[in-house]
User: Fold this.
Amino acid sequence: MSYESIQFGIKDGIATLILNRPQVMNALSSQMRLEITDALTTLPSEVRCVVLTGSGRGFCSGQDLTDRVAATNLEATLRDEYEPMLRAMTNCPVPIIAAVNGVAAGAGANLALAADVVIAAESATFIQAFTRIGLIPDAGGTFIIPRAIGNARAMGMMLFAEPVTARQAMEWGLIWEALPDDDFAEGVAARARKLAQGPTLAYRAIRKAITETSQNDLDAQLALEAKLQGEAGRTTDFVEGVTAFLEKRPAKFTGH
Assistant:
């Protein structure tokens, strides 16, 4: 499909998905959610990493509150539009980096936090802004945030709806990295290049293992590790990785 509210392009194995409604701080419209879902579920095989970011001065301000249909049918909107988008992120066959270039608020914050790796500019903030309008956090926030930073900090974020700085989010373990604004673009690009040149199937297995650990006991997780490691050990990338190690050279992974 052609996209109206996002920009999408592919170069050197990296797909860049830019939320592109800067006039409203990239607020999530129904059209944008549909387009994000479509882009992530129709990735061509050449893609080995996705970078999700925002245009203009913010990442995403959350739900577009001028969308009266969505605002008056919250349960249906979450079920029919947000859930497919979030599942498209979870089921994406390659790692997703959320490059948070500015404010990430409400559902916009939780969209970022649903990525595999979150890298933020130091000027960025994360705000669970829902109680400001009498709502509860959604878009996966009540699932992701307590698991990342514990109930005490999650509760404070959600009850007080106060901004959390990028550096604070990094120190809490909510995100991976906070970079000085001047280094942000190149820092994200370097991380994306590393993933795009890495062992894609091993990355996929890591994501599956991390996702399932919260519901497994030790025996189940050890069994899953063994299964996934067996699959990884049958890949071309494993052969290349061992060969490169023995030959004392950088590995040239192909993602197979």
Q: What stands out?
A: The mean pLDDT is 95. The chain has two domains: 6-196, 200-246.
